[in-house]
Each structure stands twice: as structure tokens, then as C-alpha cells.
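Annual report, structural modelling task.

Input specification for the zinc ion complex:
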Amino acid sequence: MRILLLSDIHANSEALDACLAEAPEHDLVVNLGDVVGYGASPNEVIERSRALGKVFVRGNHDKACSGISSMEDFNPIAGLAVIWTRTVLRKENLEWLRVLPQGPARIDGVSGVQLVHGSPHDEDEYLLLLPEALRSLDEAEPWITFFGHTHVQGGFFASSDDSAAIRPVYNAHAASEKFLFQLRKNVRYMINPGSVGQPRDGDWRAAFALFDTDAYTVTYYRVKYDVAGAQKRIIAADLPERLATRLAQGR
Ligand code: ZN
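The model returned the following structure:
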């Protein structure tokens, strides 16, 4: 089975369009949360995401924008985006966001895999560095955990005698590219497909990944998208300008 992994789309329809246009053939789409927040197309992105599949875990922005959690942990700019999103969300989209499932989730018919937004212990935890990730890797019952939340493409692995971070290697930042990563048996993985709509790993290109259960590979993708279009929409919506400028920086 070929599983398309999307995470942290953050209401960026231009980035989502580009990812879907360049996505390879797949049997199933998995969404690791933060469908909305920051970007200016929450209704469009929710409707498109719902049409893609049924496998979701909720993100912290999905919770805040649908009003089931407070904005306590949000910085002022993120908070403004939450308030804006709440005012523009259509009722049925708000209702849909509100009942998104909390991770860890499983995929029917696929063993050894779990889905989370932050970490298996805490849906809001940021796994940015190996020491933090090791706790999840050591205790993980499934071999592979797909996660998002950090907006950093890559992940971590741990075997009985080795552990390290995984970072895809790309040649250029101008074109669309992919990076094939061969998984090994008896190794535990935390795999982050990266953020579709607001990358923060220094690469502005939209990120996603494909998990092939038969070949036991993860292919990471970075694709060019209409950043100027997404920025224009953010400015026109009177969202904080920083939310537009950061898209071009990938920060
Ligand atoms: Zn996010």
C-alpha cells in the first residue's frame, strides 16, 4: 500500500494544491493535523482535505480554532490567526474540526504504524531533537510513528545499537525534489513528512511524504508552490504580515 502523508497544511490552499499536483500515485491519504491556523484559506483546505480521505489526527490549531482548547500556549500572532479563523469558518467545517480524533491513531489494515500530531505521549509535544524523540522511540510499540507539529521534515530512528536524526538531503531549493529513505526491519522510526503549508526548516517549499508499505520506504518531497498567492491572501485577510513573510523564508 502506498500512503500519502500530509501534515500541518495550515489553511494554505496554494501549497496543498502543489503537493497534490506532484504527489505520486497512492492508495490512501493520512493527515497528521493542523489543517487550519495561520493561513487564509481554512474553509477551502478543510473541504479539500475531507475529500481526500478519512484518516486524521487533530492538531493544536485544529483544537484552538474550533474552540475546544484555549489559546493559552499560543503566541500573539498565532492567537490572532485563531480568532480570525473562528470568524470565517463555515459552521459545518467548524463542527468537523471539533470532532477530529486525538492521536495516537492506527490505519485499518496496516500493522506496526501509528499516527500522532506531536508525540505518542502528548499530542502537543514538540519532538525537535533526538533526546526528546528517544523516549517515544524506546517505548513505541509500533515500529513506525508518523508525526507532525514541528514543521521540520525528517524524523528519527533508533535500533538496538544506534540512533540518529533523519534529514532528507536536497540539491537545490529552486526546483521540486524528492529524497528516498529505505527503512530497515527491527528499527523504530519517528517520521515527519514536514509541513505542507508553513515549513520551518529553512526550506520554503511545501513538504509531504509517501510511505510504501511493500517496499518499506519513505519518500520525502519538497515542491515549489505559489507563495506569492498565499501571501496575498493572508495580507488581504488582514492577518499579521509576519504570517505572509515567513512563508518565503521557510521559518
Ligand atoms: Zn502546525
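The mean pLDDT is 95.
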